[in-house]
Amino acid sequence: MPPDIIAARLEHMPSILEIWNHVIRDTAYTFTSTLKTTEDVEHILTDHCALVMVDGGRVIGFARFGPFRGGDGYRFVAEHTILMAPSARARGLGGQLLRALEAEGRTAGIVRFVAGIGGENDIAQKFHKAMGYVETGRMPRMGWKFERWHDLVLMQKDL
Predict the structure, then answer these.
(1) Is 154 exposed, middle or buried (0-12, 13-18, 19+ CB in 10 A)?
(2) pLDDT tens, position by position, 63-118
(3) Number of domains observed in the structure of the chain
(4) How many Å separate Cα 112 from the centre of its chain?
(5) CA dist., res. 154 & res. 61, Å (int)
(6) Which of 3, 73, 93, 139 has the smallest number of Cβ neighbours within 10 A?
C-alpha cells in the first residue's frame, strides 16, 4: 500500500521536528544551525501550506511552501521545503510529495516554486532537475556552517 499524503497537523509535529532537526544538525543542506522548535513548526502549520507523507502511521516526509519574499509583487511565487526521513530517501517518494505540494501551490494561485539548495547538496539539485526545475542562480559563499562557507543554488519551476 502506497504512503498517504495529507495536510500536516499538530499531531505530526514531533516527527516533523525529528526529520527537520536531523537535517539542520547533521548536514549543510540548510545553513541554519538553530534547531526548529515546536513554536516554529506550529507557526508553519498555521501560516503556510504543509503536507506530510505517512507510511504505516509513521511520518516519513514533510513538505511546505511559503512566501518567497515580502511584498505583494511576489505573491504568486513561493519557496518550498521538502524533507524526507533517511529511511524514505532514494525510493521515489520525494517526487510524489513534491508533486502533491505543487498541486496545492497551483490551487493557491502560485505560479512558480523556488528552491534554495545548499551547493553541496548534489542529491537535491539532481532531484529538482528531474522534477523539472532549472537552475537560475548560484550564489557563492552565501551560508556559513560547520566553520566554512557554502554556495546557495537557486532553482525554479513554473507550475
Answers:
(1) middle
(2) 999 999 999 999 999 999 999 998 878 788 899 999 999 999 999 999 999 999 99
(3) 1
(4) 15
(5) 22
(6) 73
Domain enclosing residue 79, as ranges: 4-158
List pLDDT tens digits, range 41-71: 998 888 779 999 999 999 999 999 999 999 9
Question: Could you give the CA distance from residue 33 to residue 16 in angstroms, rounded to a whole number?
Answer: 17
Closest CA to 48 of 78, 26, 90: 78
**Residue pair 76/112 in contact by the 8 Å Cβ criterion:** yes
**Closest of 63, 78, 72 to residue 108, by C-alpha:** 78
Structural contact between residues 16 and 62, judged by C-beta atoms closer than 8 angstroms? yes
